[in-house]
Specification:
Order of helices and strands: EHEHEEEEEHH
Largest sheet: 5 strands, mixed
Distance between the termini: 88 Å
Strand order of the largest sheet: 2-3-4-5-6
Shape: flat
Strand content: 25-35%
Structural class: alpha+beta
Radius of gyration: 26 Å
Number of helices: 4
């Protein structure tokens, strides 16, 4: 399958009216904010966008982004691959006041001067998909944490109300 470069910017209202579909890829190294969080900026993000207008005349884009990012595990400091496969739906509005009219199913995007930068949108989607603390799954990590795995230790704590219970039983015995 031949991957095409996506346009840098589009008029989302015109694209929605004409029900345009775009498919292509964006290089990770061109996403500077995202690259700062990665261990390697090699690779691409595969993007699929379908513009349209719904029954309520809301102009939207339904999209999907797939990529594999190289992150550093914060437990063992080894590199690992982090797969992202996200779907999203955005509603386009002209101003902040128009956001309130959007149904909850749409994430709002305020479009200024009828310009929508595709790379910025995809970078935002990838940034919010990053884990807060990147780590391997526990079973794949070289660092074994205490009490992880099949070992289970039960610690019995003394009931802080045991004294009250003993006082009640003494009073009841009298």
């Amino acid at each position: 399958m031949h991957k095409e470069n996506l346009p840098q910017k589009v008029d989302p209202f015109r694209f929605a009216e004409n029900k345009f579909n775009l498919q292509g890829s964006l290089t990770l190294k061109d996403m500077h904010r995202l690259s700062a969080s990665l261990s390697s900026d090699e690779g691409e993000a595969d993007v699929s966008l379908a513009f349209g207008v719904d029954e309520q005349k809301i102009r939207f884009v339904r999209g999907q982004v797939k990529t594999c990012l190289v992150l550093q595990c914060q437990r063992c400091l080894e590199l690992f691959n982090y797969e992202i496969n996200n779907a999203f739906i955005l509603g386009f509005v002209h101003s902040e006041e128009d956001i309130e009219a959007l149904p909850e199913s749409y994430d709002p995007v305020v479009v200024k001067d009828n310009e929508f930068f595709i790379a910025d949108l995809i970078e935002e989607e990838l940034l919010v998909s990053l884990p807060i603390v990147p780590m391997h799954p526990v079973k794949d990590c070289k660092v074994k944490l205490p009490f992880s795995g099949s070992t289970s230790i039960t610690v019995e704590k003394e009931n802080p109300f045991k004294v009250i219970e003993s006082l009640r039983t003494k009073r009841g015995a009298k």
